[in-house]
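2024-03-11 09:14:02 INFO worker-7 job=invfold-0412 stage=load source=structure_tokens
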């Protein structure tokens, strides 16, 4: 990923928090030289000194077989809020641009055992269900429902390299930066308003 020095993020704790808050990622692999991708909810875990990304494919999705066949580098992409930035928001003439947050992770993928997949599903359900009145936790599911685990394939990706770029008008002066935030709040789309929150909190 092209990452100018103004926008490069290297603090892994900051990146880890971003991943947890933007956990719906994109996995990219290749099959016979052709890139293929799937969009999935993913989780980040630490095991001893290594970090792993985990998730699962539908069994019918052939992309999981690229993990089994190649055992090569896999690309995982995470995207945060993003929005158009008008040059009319600057104090002096310049060009418009686009602000965004993106994280790319490269790693080695492998297929989980059924036991590993079950443990991963338990943690996933805890994250998204535990606060609900009648949580659909693993232990609350019927044996019939649990059998549907046969229809998915779990995987884990051992992280080898992390690239992160937060293009948030860091190169603008204070007046421009604050005006961009104010103008983003005036936009009607949710992405612009979320991006304004990110920029405001980074001041």
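2024-03-11 09:14:09 INFO worker-7 stage=emit residues=203
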């Amino acid at each position: 990923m092209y990452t100018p020095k103004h926008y490069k993020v290297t603090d892994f704790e900051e990146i880890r928090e971003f991943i947890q808050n933007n956990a719906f990622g994109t996995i990219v692999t290749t099959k016979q030289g052709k890139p293929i991708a799937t969009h999935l909810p993913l989780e980040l875990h630490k095991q001893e000194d290594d970090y792993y990304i985990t998730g699962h494919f539908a069994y019918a999705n052939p992309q999981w077989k690229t993990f089994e066949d190649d055992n090569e580098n896999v690309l995982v992409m995470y995207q945060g809020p993003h929005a158009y930035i008008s040059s009319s928001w600057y104090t002096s003439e310049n060009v418009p641009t686009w602000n965004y947050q993106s994280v790319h992770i490269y790693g080695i993928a492998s297929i989980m055992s059924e036991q590993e997949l079950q443990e991963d599903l338990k943690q996933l359900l805890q994250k998204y269900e535990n606060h609900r009145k009648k949580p659909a936790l693993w232990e609350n599911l019927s044996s019939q429902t649990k059998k549907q685990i046969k229809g998915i394939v779990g995987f884990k990706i051992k992280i080898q390299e992390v690239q992160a770029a937060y293009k948030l008008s860091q190169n603008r002066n204070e007046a421009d930066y604050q005006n961009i935030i104010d103008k983003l709040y005036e936009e009607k789309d949710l992405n612009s308003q979320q991006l304004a929150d990110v920029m405001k909190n980074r001041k």
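2024-03-11 09:14:09 INFO worker-7 stage=report msg="Residues 178 and 202 are 11 Å apart (CA to CA)."
2024-03-11 09:14:10 INFO worker-7 job finished
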